[in-house]
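In the previous lecture we treated proteins in isolation. Real proteins rarely work alone, and many bind small molecules. This record shows how such a complex is specified: first the sequence, then the SMILES for zinc ion.
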Amino acid sequence: MTDPAMRLPAEPPFDPDAIPSTIVLAAGGRALRLTWAGGSAATLGAEALRLGCRCAWCTRDRIQGRFPAGFEAVTVTQVAPLGGYALHLGFSDGHARGIYPFAYLRDLAREARATEPTPRAA
Ligand SMILES: [Zn+2]
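The predicted 3D structure, ligand included, written as tokens:
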């Protein structure tokens, strides 16, 4: 029996160029500074990262309209690489279920540059 879903993808399931060259927790955990080999860099605020959590619990809360509009004074308390394609982040509000693929972090960085030329948490 051949299940097409079990076949390995021909390409890695992530963009290798999205992997940051450095990841630094900054401003007492209120920001994550990322740089990429291509020379781009970004500072992502802890609140923006917390708001951007895509875990099943946060996704459910969004669907049910219970996801908070903000996480004032939240900090990143835990940064761990995961599987070579993502970061596992923990936050000071006790939430530590978020998986942030590097490609997603790069997208957030682009959004941050587009909407916030001067990052608040820098
Ligand atoms: Zn979450």
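Summary for your notes: Residues 53, 55, 57-58, 95, 97-98 surround zinc ion (CB under 6 Å). The chain has a mean pLDDT of 88.
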